[in-house]
Amino acid sequence: MERIYASYWLETGDDPARAAEVIAGEQSSGTFVALATETPALKERSGARVEKLEILGHSTTPSLPGGMPAARYTQCRLELSWPLENTGASLPNLMSTVAGNLFELRQVSGLRLTGLRLPRAFVEAYPGPAFGIAGTRKLTGVTHGPLIGTIIKPSIGLSVEETVEQVRELVAGGIDFIKDDELQADGGRCPFDERVRAVMRVVNEHAERTGKKVMVAFNLTGDLDQMRRRHDLVLAEGGTCVMAVLNSIGLVGLQELRRHAQLPIHAHRAGWGYLTRSPQLGWDYAPWQQLWRLAGADHMHVNGLRNKFSEPDDSVITAARSVLQPVVPGVEMVSTMPVFSSGQTGLQAADTYAAIGCADLIHTAGGGIFGHPQGVAAGVQALREAWVAAIEGVPLQQHAGKHPALQAALEFWK
Amino acid sequence: MERIYASYWLETGDDPARAAEVIAGEQSSGTFVALATETPALKERSGARVEKLEILGHSTTPSLPGGMPAARYTQCRLELSWPLENTGASLPNLMSTVAGNLFELRQVSGLRLTGLRLPRAFVEAYPGPAFGIAGTRKLTGVTHGPLIGTIIKPSIGLSVEETVEQVRELVAGGIDFIKDDELQADGGRCPFDERVRAVMRVVNEHAERTGKKVMVAFNLTGDLDQMRRRHDLVLAEGGTCVMAVLNSIGLVGLQELRRHAQLPIHAHRAGWGYLTRSPQLGWDYAPWQQLWRLAGADHMHVNGLRNKFSEPDDSVITAARSVLQPVVPGVEMVSTMPVFSSGQTGLQAADTYAAIGCADLIHTAGGGIFGHPQGVAAGVQALREAWVAAIEGVPLQQHAGKHPALQAALEFWK
Fold first, then answer.
1. Please, which pLDDT band fits residue A35 given cuts at 50, 70 and 90?
2. In this protein, which residues make up the domain named Ribulose bisphosphate carboxylase large subunit ferrodoxin-like N-terminal (chains A, B) (predicted)?
3. Whether the model pTM is above 0.80
4. B204 touches B234 (CB < 8 A)
5. Tally of domains within chain A
6. Looking at the partner chain, which of A28, A86, A367 has a beta carbon nearest the beta carbon of B33?
7. CA-to-CA distance for B24 and B260, rounded, in angstroms?
8. Does residue A414 sit within a domain?
9. How many contacts does A have with B, using Cβ atoms within 8 A?
10. Is B254 found in the same domain as B382?
11. Same domain? B272 vs B378
């Protein structure tokens, strides 16, 4: 029978084998006390199985409080598996199973979901993204290299007119992609409908004149009826992308948006920090993004190399690679496009390219574009040229010799 | 203008005042670099404000990794406020604002959302629970004292027939409330539809004979169309409650279920551990439950005193009290009923009653009922008698003198 596999980093004050069995029990047929009704046959059929348990080390203090007191705590790599029959191919019930009550167990002084191997049934049950990399390239006309993107800033507080001014400058400057801030959905100063209409006038005019339609990810995060209505407005105005904050709407929110949408869904991960910032608790990005891709995320944020946040580069690279891996190896599903952001300039282009081995991504820069001494157009051009150099394997300084926008950028990028 | 207030426990390696401003900026009009477009007028109008910053202490090591290195780290109590205009009364956008990117900031080596004060507009924009305490009492006929409840165990793996056997015993034993396990939604061994039909036959027969309809919280967690259809089946079969796992369906999932539902929604918090288990990260229960109550949760889990999980009693009490507080003081909204569970028996009745000052709750026990030497009926009776003693202020031993079921229970409860 097909099974679901989940890997964890576990720390326990208990005997690791016993702790593993307790976790497997809590997340399947067991409970705190032995029950006559939990027969060996039932357990064999429906219980979670401990597939692997590998001791990594020991410590004398627990990572997290509240667990059972012990003289020493053991860190392990744990893999559990469940029969698919327990949940069926259901994303919400998968979440309750692999990331439910187990984090609260007293046997646990640290627990982190590090990986997920799903059976093909999930790809059959869920649509995945409708556009992904190929669809996004088609809609933007960017056939090679990354989409050069930016974000409207200040995050919140601009009027519609001020927003449009920025968009006008960016569109004229040759940008491929613009996104709303995750805080800007339908604020009183910049209502969604007015913003979309005014921004799309600029985008459409430019597209009619030049043939290039800039993709704008309008943040429609809200209640479901609001999101549907806002999507329809974006579509009607000729827009080509909508954005939603995953943790704020939840799995059902994304599923329903995907079901309704005729545009790519730019998925923002705001709140990700509370799921991941303690290394001994919560979620790695790799298993987390699988759920959202299955539910339909076309673009997923992965932070950026040398970002302004607290995430180290190796974590960013692992996250980005995970987005480019199939959700279920060997089973076809439209590929989600990773989005690199936060403190980005052309200086990260070569390393990013080297780390993920392709340029199927959105690279967004704020100061890296707006700060260019020759203006926004030169900022966009410089970032694009940095990517050409990265892809062709030419050192940045050398490439800059023949490209004045890049040359000027190298003086302020840092 | 009305504002949203959020309190945090913050640890920072930076100057605390500067860290507070960075957090306020990141979650409103600011970004990592100074922008000419972030004018003083814009900041005054749309920026988050640091309302309070109180130093609590210092340490030489950071609680969480990834922050800026420092010789010492400062712990503080921080309160921020935002103009309601930034988000409007929108739960998903409130979440992005008070619990968005801020946890990832390098200025942060610990950050936990501890409180939320919302303007009245949220109560006007969202329905809150439709049934709550009063509606649940009406549907169950339990006019005083707690609902005595239990959960079907093993969590998963029972067939429909085996589930019905347990229900039959419980219903005959006088139970008020039964819930599915959070892992049991529509598994292959115990499909939702069959389970509901078979269980409700037993519940309905008993109700017809005795006038007492046991409330069964059927776990309908799933995709939205599944949840709606399952709700309708429960309703059609005469059921009086549905259950959903909040973290697995998300805010939009609960909102849409609430909009569709004609039955109380029993809200399970599986996954709560990853949001809360690190004391230096994530969410306190008090602000978290406010969002879900606004969205429509009728019953909310708060763990139990001396539970089998890692949560200490003071945290359980604070959580339970928060559920009984108004979401917005002075603004009427149906009251959500707290649910106490995990390792519960009558021994926790008096302390629970003393801690929250009322018995408007569901008290679920597994082993505390099934383990009774005289059977399930005596187990239910004993738990109910323990509550009578608690409410009347009679010592348990004394009350047991006149109540044999309680007397026998005291010999195995521990």
1. confident
2. 12-121
3. yes
4. no
5. 2
6. A367
7. 37
8. no
9. 342
10. yes
11. yes
